[in-house]
Design brief:
Elements (H helix, E strand, L loop, with lengths): L1 H23 L3 H13 L11 H19 L2 H6 L1 H26 L5 H11 L4 H8 L6 H31 L4 H30 L5 H21 L4 H19 L2 H28 L1 H6 L6 H33 L1 H6 L5 H9 L5 H8 L8 H29 L12 H21 L7 H21 L3 H27 L6 H24 L9
């Protein structure tokens, strides 16, 4: 009972920190980690053990699945080359640099243990990246590359980690065996995740209950993770593949009501799990420090600064040359994919926040593993350094370089062009179903309605700014009308059947959601919801 009460208290504290972080403009992940560190030293507070396997199994599948579910698949494929260079090449290069620095500073540390440390801290975290980037609005390509990297890099790092741990314990090292293990793990995890995703789609086609659909979608990620791990494949890639299948085919399987309801459920799960995982990361500080009595504070500070510095600088050392050198050597690559601006490379290099995967991997080391305590300490320090230093400065850096997409800068051309195509498709479908000679007054009125929407979208797409202002004014008035209708319904609800009132309230809520989405498409600030 005490653990349950403590968990509820932590969740309430997470909510308070979220409100404070939003007020002062600090990334939520940073506020949560610092808050967890603060309460870790409160007297009388019981220590909450961070079970590595449970943490990975509980937090990673749903959060990775959600990131994959939201991934822009065409943009992901377009940027597959830089994503893979970061998800594999940057991970291996960073692990090697960190391993060399650790071996140089701690000569007694075996090479296998040093490589394990490098593998632990090498991959930027998908949860941390999403938590920090959510409100920054960087350019589309930067966001796609960073999110795509964070979805795939855990597979490379965890295979290297397991290989290094096994080699350290066994005392043998076989590069060919490690490369084969990585290939089999990646391919196996992807195939298992794809199969689970297709199975989930088959189940969706045979059920039509919203709650059942949402339940299956949540369980699918866990099923992909555990099934892949059971065959010694990459559970991370299993979840990613499953999430991509569900995200790509969601419109074929889900009704509009299911998509709206599942969006609310997944938003709550994302906030709850993200908040708790970063809070628990911060709360591990006391236990980590208690295990290091043999190191002087100055020595620990030196090790932490050197490891964190090597981690951050190695990302720059990989990204800059691997962007420019191939284009200098290949004219075809230069023409097909010109090098991004240096400002983009700086942002991608600086956005390397670590999180739950690194800490869970460190804590999962065998108890008698050489250098286990110092490895856990350094892993925690790199998480703290990248979240606090990089997480808090990434937003100012993006704004300083002029890379923030404006919130309200006239009409969003991509949204409006797409809206034009949709409106024209709807008009054509209605006109095909009715013939002018046989059209009754109701059909004539409907055709006129869709024709007006298509013409309005066309004027917006042609850059008519007055039309955008007029449409935004109309939508704002519609919001006022919906609010008045809702207030009247609430005042007269006791005079009507409750089911009928609830149904009408749902219709008003859906209408309001549609209006607000249209306002966002027009890049006009919608009035705040009360």
């Amino acid at each position: 009972m005490l653990t349950f009460e403590l968990l509820l208290g932590l969740f309430a504290f997470c909510l308070a920190l979220a409100l404070v972080a939003r007020r002062i403009g600090v990334p939520l992940a940073v506020a949560l980690v610092l808050g967890g560190m603060a309460i870790a030293f409160l007297p009388g507070l019981p220590h909450i053990a961070f079970e590595p396997e449970l943490a990975l199994a509980l937090f990673l599948p749903p959060l990775l699945q959600l990131s994959a579910y939201r991934t822009d698949w065409p943009a992901f494929r377009t940027n597959l080359r830089p994503i893979l260079l970061l998800a594999t090449g940057a991970v291996l290069f960073t692990a090697a640099v960190v391993a060399c620095v650790a071996k140089w500073l701690i000569p007694d540390l075996p090479w296998g243990a040093a490589i394990a440390l490098g593998a632990i801290v090498a991959p930027p975290d998908a949860v941390a990246a999403a938590a920090v980037l959510r409100d920054l609005r960087p350019p589309k390509r930067i966001a796609t590359v960073l999110e795509g990297e964070s979805l795939l890099n855990d597979a490379a790092s965890l295979v290297l980690y397991r290989f290094a741990v096994g080699a350290t314990i066994a005392g043998t090292f076989d590069l060919k065996e490690g490369a084969l293990a990585f290939l089999l793990s990646a391919v196996g995890g992807t195939l298992v995740g794809y199969a689970i995703g297709r199975l989930a789609m088959w189940i969706f086609s045979r059920i039509d209950e919203t709650l059942h659909d949402i339940t299956v979608s949540v369980l699918a990620g866990f099923a992909a993770y555990f099934a892949a791990e059971a065959v010694h494949a990459s559970g991370v890639l299993g979840v990613v593949a499953c999430g991509l299948v569900l995200g790509t085919h969601q419109h074929q399987a889900f009704t509009a009501h299911t998509r709206l309801a599942s969006g609310a459920v997944w938003s709550f799960l994302e906030f709850a799990l993200t908040s708790l995982v970063f809070m628990l990361i911060g709360m591990q500080l006391r236990g980590i420090i208690d295990r290091l009595p043999s190191y002087a504070p100055a020595q620990l500070a030196t090790l932490a600064l050197a490891t964190s510095g090597a981690l951050i600088l190695s990302r720059f050392a990989w990204i800059m040359p691997m962007t420019w050198i191939p284009r200098l050597l290949s004219r075809r690559l230069r023409e097909r994919d010109p090098a991004p601006p240096a400002s983009h490379l700086v942002v991608i290099s600086w956005a390397g926040m670590r999180g739950v995967v690194s800490l869970a991997a460190a804590l999962a080391l065998p108890m008698r593993f050489p250098g286990r305590d110092i490895i856990i300490f350094l892993a925690f320090c790199t998480i703290l350094a990248t979240l606090v230093v990089q997480g808090t400065t990434l937003g100012p850096l993006i704004r300083r370089l002029g890379l923030t997409r404006p919130d309200n800068d006239g009409v969003d051309p991509r949204q409006v062009t797409l809206r034009r195509h949709v409106a024209e498709a709807a008009l054509n479908a209605v006109e095909e179903q009715t013939v002018d000679d046989d059209r009754d007054p109701a059909a004539t009125e409907l055709v006129a309605h869709y024709r007006d929407r298509a013409q309005q979208a066309a004027r917006l797409d042609d850059g008519a700014e007055p039309e955008a202002n007029r449409a935004a004014a109309q939508l704002t008035l519609r919001l006022t009308a919906v609010e008045a209708a809702r207030s009247k319904l609430a005042a007269r609800r006791q005079d009507h059947d409750d089911d009928a009132a609830l149904g009408l309230m749902t219709e008003l809520d859906l209408e309001e959601e549609q209006i607000r989405r249209e306002l966002i498409a027009l890049s006009q600030p919608a009035p705040r919801q009360r």
